[in-house]
């Protein structure tokens, strides 16, 4: 179930989603499989360049009852050739009666269009205090996108993470395509380096 609102200044969505295991023939987001999620997001346009957004949700894993609560606030500045974002995030995972993990973060990102085909990206998520949530470590991503045509884009990313659990360095390259409206295809090669060695994914 989903309720949407859209006007000249604001956009918002409130939703309740449940997705069982094996739904969608592998086309759904893997992190959503076997979960129930309730939440909402909103965007408020201050003027032509500035906007503010917020998101909040609770996600429950149906098989185990584990829960994740997330609250995020962000500000955006957008111009024709570049954009920037700054925000804060709180995440709390409840894994059992006596086990809770949490992370508080500030994050910033930027995007600059060098040419009509080439775009550069940078993103940094900085953990403040506890970094118990393994899905939200301190993270830096630098990337490039090269537009082949109206439907296909080559990309390359370099990502570094740091948390109490581990440190990683990951290189990714691949192709993203939208051959028709609503359809998405991607192919990626990934190499990840951790304290335990190097792994290669496709």
Helix-strand blueprint:
Blueprint: E1 2-6, E2 10-19, E3 35-45, E4 50-61, E5 67-78, E6 82-96, E7 99-113, E8 118-131, E9 138-147, E10 152-162, E11 167-177, E12 185-194, E13 197-201
Antiparallel strand pairs: 1-2, 2-3, 3-4, 4-5, 5-6, 6-7, 7-8, 8-9, 9-10, 10-11, 11-12, 12-13
Overview of this protein structure:
With about 200 residues, the protein is mainly beta. The chain has no helices and 13 strands. It has a 13-stranded antiparallel β-sheet with strand order 1-2-3-4-5-6-7-8-9-10-11-12-13, with no helix packed on it. A hairpin with a 6-residue loop joins strand 8 and strand 9. The two termini are about 35 Å apart.
Summed up:
The protein is mostly beta strands and 202 residues long.
The chain-level mean pLDDT equals: 88
Share of helical residues: under 10%
Assign the structural class, choosing from mainly alpha, mainly beta, alpha/beta, alpha+beta, or little secondary structure: mainly beta
Count of DSSP H/I helices: 0
Instruction: Please state roughly what percent of the residues sit in beta strands, choosing from under 5%, 5-15%, 15-25%, 25-35%, 35-45% or over 45%.
Output: over 45%
Write down how many β-strands occur, each being a DSSP E stretch of 2 or more residues. Answer: 13
**Separation of the first and last Cα atoms:** 34 Å
* CA-based gyration radius: 19 Å
As laid out across the biggest beta sheet, the strand order is 1-2-3-4-5-6-7-8-9-10-11-12-13
| Shape, principal axes of CA atoms | globular
Q: Unreliable segments (pLDDT under 50, ≥5 consecutive)?
A: 23-28
What is the N-to-C order of secondary-structure elements (H for helix, E for strand)? EEEEEEEEEEEEE
Q: Main β-sheet: number of strands, strand sense, barrel status?
A: 13 strands, antiparallel
